Amino acid sequence: MHFSRLPTELLHAIFRLLPRSSLTHLCLTNRFLHEACLPVLYCHLELSFRSHIRQLMTGLQRPLLRDTIQQHTKHLTLVCRQSGSQWLVVDLQHLFRMIQHVHTLTFSDFQVLPIDNIRSLANILPTVDHLQFRYCNLESTKTPKPHHDPSSHMPLPVFQNATKLSLSWTDFGEPAMTDLLCCLPHLETVCFGANHNRTPEANDAALRILPLHCPKVRHLEVSLQQVSETTLCNTIAFYGNQLERLSVRCDGPRTLHAVATYATRVHDLVVRGNGAITLTDSRPLIRRPNGTTRNEQQRRLEVSMMETNEQEEPEEHGLLSILRQCEALRRLEIVCWMIQDVPGVIWNAIESVAQRRIATATRKRDGLHAQSLVSEARSSLAAASASASASGSTLPEHENWREGHPVFEIHPPSDRTGGVWLYYFDDNATRNQQGLRRREIGHLEKTLALDGEELSEIRKHIQTTV
């Protein structure tokens, strides 16, 4: 079928799968493909140099390119390859007024990016929904004005439709972050990615002032360094039940219990560990004073332990509290946790789900002919070994055959770091291993992604242990 007979939507779907270089060559093939490729080519517009801007402004004199950009450009990326950033406001003013359907605005590689330049685009690009900053350095250029100045009481422009903010390797100070959040009052998704942390305490201040200016946040991801656990817990407590997606770094048990207490309606939770998550006994050691006998020391120890048990109840692991309290949780990802920090209940539930999945897969794969298939495979293996011995060559061991037993290596979705789970289905291996066995391969840190089935099984195990 010729390209001209395909629907336009199908053509655009095919073109989006092609590399940009191939799409450029395809655009130069003929007039039909040129007109068909333009909407896909210009859906994301990236500008880096003033010469590019001048070339684009010249091309916009053609009606076809002008109409394509006005209707199909949804993503605009501004990359600073030259010193300064004033060309954002000067050279692109006319272009910004022509693209009124931009939803995503990205700033990249700006060594100095004044917040005033960003705020000036709020009225020019009213349809922006997502603001992205990559490898930038945000600065505040606000200067105090006298009280008698009428312009000091004028409302500042804000992005009325912006609901998403993403920062990746972007540094800022507290005044710059305050000015940025002030012009984004309707944020619902905030992603604070890691940065170079060049300004002391700026990262902690960014998370602390976020609730003051953006009270509607529902999706929050925090990867900033040197954010205190108190600030993180206070932020979680402020947003509370309106949080649906949460991704944070866990510096201690307080973070886990804050999620379990306040964010009870979270659907998707990602908890990144740092090796200090295990709940330890914080009770002081009781030493025998000089001059006391061993019996007196033992009696004091027993009395102290009884008083401690009456005053302090054993605290439940934070992950178990989250699984118990957050009933709407559909996905839990535990990133880079030490194996010993994960409660045993979770491991038992994972093994139960994996065993059930393996049993189901075995019935579907083999069915009633499992034994016959194994016999035929062993016969084929014996014949191949005999022929190899007769010819004087050796037969390499197949990766799915070990000691004559069929082995299925399956990577369940709960293990993403290369851990191999081996399940043996013949009677002898089952009798030797007493069922399911898990062998850890790789680092001591694991990343577990638990979906609905694993979470349901974990909750069952928690209820049975209560």
From TrEMBL:
<dbReference type="InterPro" id="IPR001810">
    <property type="entry name" value="F-box_dom"/>
</dbReference>
<dbReference type="Pfam" id="PF12937">
    <property type="entry name" value="F-box-like"/>
</dbReference>
<dbReference type="InterPro" id="IPR032675">
    <property type="entry name" value="LRR_dom_sf"/>
</dbReference>
<dbReference type="InterPro" id="IPR036047">
    <property type="entry name" value="F-box-like_dom_sf"/>
</dbReference>
<protein>
    <recommendedName>
        <fullName>F-box domain-containing protein</fullName>
    </recommendedName>
</protein>
<feature type="domain" description="F-box">
    <location>
        <begin position="1"/>
        <end position="31"/>
    </location>
</feature>
<feature type="compositionally biased region" description="Basic and acidic residues">
    <location>
        <begin position="396"/>
        <end position="405"/>
    </location>
</feature>
<feature type="region of interest" description="Disordered">
    <location>
        <begin position="385"/>
        <end position="405"/>
    </location>
</feature>
